[in-house]
Structures are given as C-alpha cells and as structure tokens.
Design goal:
Blueprint lengths: L1 E5 L2 E9 L10 E4 L4 E6 L6 H10 L4 E5 L4 H4 L10 E4 L2 E4 L1 H11 L7 H18 L9 H27 L12 H16 L8 H12 L1 H9 L6
The protein binds glutathione.
The site of glutathione has 9 residues, from helix 3.
C-alpha cells in the first residue's frame, strides 16, 4: 500500500492507492504530490463534472483534451475504449461518475453521512439516466433531431418537476451544503438549456439553485476560464 501526501499541504493525505502488482507487505510513505491527468474530448460532456470537482477542490490536474481526428488511434490504448479517464500516478479510473464520486469523497462534497451519500448518488443517477437517453452519437440528422425534440419537450418537464419537488425549499439538493449532485445539476442543465432555452421558464427553484452553484467562487472562476464549446 502506498500512502501519498500532498507536498503543498502535507497534513492532507491525498489518497491511498493499492498499486496492482505491488508486493510490499508494509506501508511506505512517499512524500509526493499526486499527478492527475484527465483525458476527454474538447467539450464539456461527461468530462465537465470532473473538471468542476477539480475546480472546487483547487487540485491541479492536466486537462488533456483530445481531438476527434486522433481518437481512432487513441481508443485502442484506453482500457474499456471510452473517455473520460482519470490517471492518478499511473492508475487509470474510467467511468465519469466513478471518477467524480472518488473526487467528491476526497474533497468533502459526496454527502456528509452514508444516507446523504446515497441520496446524492440517487440524484446524480436520475439526472444521468435522462442525459443518457439522448442519442448523442446518432448519425442521421433527422432521427437525432426528432429524438432530441421529443426528450426535451415531452420528458424533460417531468424530470425537472420531480427534481424541483425533491429540492423543495432547501438551498442544496442534499444536506446543508453543496454536494456534487448540485454540481451535476448545473453541468447537465447547462447542456439542456443550450438545447432548449425555454426550459428555464418553469421550475424557478431549480434555476435559483443553478445560479447558487455558479456563484461559488471556484465554479465561477472555472466557468469564466474554461474553453467555450457548444456541448
Ligand atoms: N458511462 C460512461 C460513458 C463513456 C462514453 O460513452 N464516452 C464517450 C464520449 S461521451 C466515448 O468515449 N465515445 C467514443 C467511443 O465510444 O468510441 C461514462 O460515463 O464515462
């Protein structure tokens, strides 16, 4: 087992990794900073929740944005052949929500108790279920347009109402402080609004929450500085 520390803040244990193939029977402390490298396309998409968590935590990372033209050569080199992936000192995590949950736990925004964490996960999965219904990679323009219109017009309002009911009069979706469920709402609703801006005409509490998330200084700074992409 390797215990890894942040040199900038030695009191903060960065993380503990069981390195595959590591036969050491004892613990060895290595005083080093973790190297984080996020690999994704040059878009917000499934990478953005991870970038939010890095922005919020202030942890430095490499934001490796690959070009679509290079993807066919890169894909076979990536475990499971999909991005985003996060490399942490050579250990690769795949699946955007697994990566985000890991960073959320490390940085105190996963929910304060196991119950809160379950509620956070449930909200994230609910939003993700909906975002996954969109046929993002559909090649036929008309088929894609029809499916998007249907989801945005007929399915989104019900989801937004359910989310607003869940939020009620609270400041944050779960618990007394911001969690990555609030970040995920902000990230995904930005995409939904880019596709159908009048979604903002209903469910005002959800849009107040969105502004609350975007007013967090670290989030505001990231939104200001991030590359501008349509999705
Ligand atoms: N459930 C996975 C989905 C990963 C995924 O489908 N990634 C897409 C980009 S958003 C991808 O790698 N597409 C290229 C390909 O499948 O070749 C996650 O959340 O990470």
């Amino acid at each position: 087992m390797l215990l890894l520390y942040d040199l900038d803040d030695p009191l903060r244990l960065g993380t503990t990794l069981n390195h595959p193939g590591n036969n050491m029977l004892h613990s060895e402390k290595i005083f080093t900073m973790l190297n984080y490298k996020l690999t994704y396309f040059n878009m917000r998409g499934r990478g953005e929740i991870i970038r939010y968590l890095f922005a919020y935590s202030g942890i430095k990372y490499e934001d490796n944005r690959i070009e679509w033209a290079d993807w066919p050569n890169i894909k076979p080199t990536i475990p499971f052949g999909k991005v985003p992936i996060l490399e942490i000192d050579g250990v690769i995590i795949h699946q955007s929500l697994a990566i985000a949950r890991y960073l959320a736990k490390e940085n105190g925004v996963a929910g304060k108790t196991p119950l809160e964490q379950a509620l956070v996960d449930a909200i994230v999965d609910t939003i993700d279920d909906f975002m996954s219904m969109f046929p993002w990679a559909e090649k036929d323009h008309d088929v894609k347009k029809r499916a998007f219109n249907d989801l945005l017009t007929n399915v989104a309002p019900g989801l937004l109402q359910d989310l607003e009911n869940f939020l009620g009069n609270k400041n944050w979706l779960v618990g007394e402080s911001v969690t990555w469920a609030d970040f995920y709402w902000d990230v995904c609703s930005t995409t939904l609004l880019s596709l159908k801006s009048d979604l903002e005409d209903s469910n005002p509490k959800l849009w107040v929450l969105k502004r609350r998330v975007q007013a967090l200084p670290a989030v505001a700074a990231w939104i200001q500085q991030r590359p501008k992409t349509s999705l």
